[in-house]
C-alpha cells in the first residue's frame, strides 16, 4: 500500500512548550488513521502542520509523495481539513457555505452544483440546505463543517475532534459518513480523545501523549495486547496502611494506580491470581467494599503507558 503521508521526526516548539517532540508515522492510502490522545497531547499541532496552517520547527513531511515545504499549493488542493473549532458562516445558508468553500478550489458550474449536493447529502443536511447555520444545533453545525471541508473531494481528509460536544445522533451520523468517505476511496486522519470512536472506525491507531507517540499499530495489534489483560478496580476502606509495593510485585501485575480509596490494577490474565490479590489486601488490613473487573481496552493501554486516564 502506498503512503499518502509520511512524517519524519516532526517537532514543534513554542516559546515555553514542546508541543510535538519528534514524531514519525505514515498514513497509508485508503485507510482511516485514528489519532488518539488527551487534551494537550499535540494532536491539533500535528494536524495543523499537515494542513499547512502551521509550520514545523523541525522534521520532514511528505504528502502525496511531495515535500510539504516545496509543494504547499499542490498539496493543499488535495487535502480537506475539518478544524477543531467550527468555521462556517452563520448568516448564509448551509448550501452557500458549502459552495463558498468548494469554490475556493476552482470548482465551477455543474460540477460545483453536484459536489455541493453530494456533500450536503453525505452529512444528511440536504433537506436543510436553505437554512442558516445560526438556526442549527451544535451537531448540525459540526456536520456542515465537514461538508464544507470535503465538497472539493479531497484525497486526504483530516478531521480534528469533529464530535466534541455533540448529541449521540449527530456523532453517529458523523462516524457513518466517515466510513462512506473511506469507501469512496479517501484517506482519513481522525483525531479524538474518545477511544470508542477510534475503536469503531480506525484501521490503524496512533496514541499520543505529551508530544510523543506512545503506541501505534493496527486495531488488531493493539487489541492483541489488550486481550491478554484485565483491569480490576477495588473500592477499599482502611486503605492507609497498604504497602503498594506488595501489590506491584505480585505475579502478572502490569500497572497499579491509586486514586483516593480506589485501587486499579491492570493484570496479565495468564499470570495473575485474583484470590492471591484479595488475600494480600485482607492481610494488609484493607476492607474490600466492592470490586469490578473489565476486559482491558484502549483506555487501559493508555493508563498502562502513562499512568493517566485519557479524559483527565
Ligand atoms: P491537543 O490537540 O492534543 O489537545 P495541542 O496540539 O492543541 O494538543 O497542544 C499541545 C500542547 O501545546 C499543549 O500543551 C498546548 O497548551 C500547547 N500549545 C498549543 N498551541 C500553542 C501556542 N500557540 N503557544 C504555546 N503553546 C501552545
Ligand atoms: Mg486539539
Textual characterization of the structure:
With 312 residues, the protein is α/β, with parallel strands linked by helices. It has two domains: 221 residues, Rossmann fold (3-Layer(aba) Sandwich), CATH 3.40.50.300; 68 residues, 2-Layer Sandwich (Alpha-Beta Plaits). It has eleven helices and 14 strands. The strands form three sheets. A six-stranded mixed beta sheet has the order 6-7-8-3-9-10, with helices on both faces. A hairpin with a 2-residue loop joins strand 9 and strand 10. The radius of gyration is 23 Å and the shape is elongated. Bound molecules: adenosine-5'-diphosphate and magnesium ion. Adenosine-5'-diphosphate binds next to strand 2 and helix 1. Adenosine-5'-diphosphate (ADP) binds next to strand 2 and helix 1.
Summarize the structure.
With 312 residues, the chain is of the alpha/beta class. 34% of the residues lie in helices and 31% in strands. The chain has 11 helices and 14 strands.
Low-pLDDT residue spans: none
Strand content: 25-35%
Q: Helices and strands: which structural class?
A: alpha/beta
Envelope shape: elongated
- Which range best describes the helical content: under 10%, 10-25%, 25-40%, 40-55%, 55-70% or over 70%? 25-40%
Biggest β-sheet description: 6 strands, mixed
Overall tally of domains: 2
How large is the radius of gyration?
A: 23 Å
N-end to C-end Cα span: 36 Å
| Annotation, overall tally of beta strands | 14
CATH-defined architecture of the largest domain: 3-Layer(aba) Sandwich
- CATH homologous superfamily caption of the largest domain: P-loop containing nucleotide triphosphate hydrolases
Which CATH first-tier class of the largest domain would you pick?
Alpha Beta
Strand order of the largest sheet: 6-7-8-3-9-10
Amino acid at each position: 500500500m502506498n503512503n499518502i503521508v509520511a512524517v519524519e521526526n516532526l517537532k514543534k516548539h513554542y516559546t515555553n512548550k514542546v508541543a510535538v517532540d519528534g514524531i514519525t508515522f505514515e498514513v497509508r492510502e485508503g485507510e482511516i488513521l485514528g489519532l488518539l490522545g488527551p487534551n494537550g497531547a499535540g494532536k491539533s499541532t500535528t494536524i495543523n502542520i499537515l494542513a499547512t496552517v502551521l509550520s514545523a520547527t523541525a522534521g520532514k513531511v511528505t504528502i502525496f509523495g511531495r515535500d510539504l515545504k516545496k509543494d504547499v499549493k499542490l498539496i493543499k488542493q488535495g487535502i480537506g481539513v475539518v478544524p477543531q473549532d467550527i468555521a462556517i458562516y452563520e448568516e448564509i445558508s448551509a448550501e452557500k457555505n458549502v459552495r463558498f468553500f468548494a469554490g475556493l478550489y476552482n470548482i465551477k458550474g455543474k460540477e460545483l452544483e453536484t459536489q455541493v449536493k453530494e456533500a450536503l447529502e453525505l452529512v444528511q443536511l440536504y433537506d436543510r440546505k436553505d437554512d442558516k447555520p445560526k438556526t442549527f444545533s451544535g451537531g448540525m453545525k459540526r456536520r456542515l463543517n465537514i461538508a464544507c471541508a470535503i465538497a472539493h473531494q479531497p484525497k486526504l481528509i483530516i478531521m480534528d475532534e469533529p464530535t466534541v460536544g455533540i448529541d449521540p445522533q449527530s456523532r453517529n451520523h458523523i462516524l457513518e459518513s466517515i466510513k462512506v468517505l473511506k469507501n469512496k476511496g479517501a484517506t482519513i486522519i481522525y483525531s479524538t480523545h474518545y477511544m470508542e470512536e477510534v475503536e469503531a472506525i480506525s484501521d490503524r491507531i496512533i496514541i499520543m501523549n505529551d508530544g510523543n507517540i506512545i503506541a501505534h499499530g493496527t486495531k488488531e495489534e493493539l487489541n492483541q495486547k489488550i486481550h491478554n489483560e484485565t483491569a480490576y478496580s477495588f473500592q477499599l476502606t482502611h486503605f492507609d496502611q497498604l504497602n503498594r509495593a506488595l501489590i506491584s510485585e505480585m505475579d502478572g501485575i502490569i500497572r497499579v494506580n491509586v486514586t483516593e480509596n480506589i485501587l486499579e490494577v491492570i493484570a496479565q490474565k495468564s499470570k495473575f491470581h485474583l484470590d492471591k490479590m484479595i488475600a494480600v489486601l485482607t492481610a494488609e488490613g484493607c476492607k474490600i467494599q466492592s470490586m469490578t473487573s473489565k476486559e482491558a481496552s484502549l483506555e487501559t493501554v493508555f493508563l498502562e503507558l502513562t499512568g493517566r486516564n485519557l479524559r483527565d
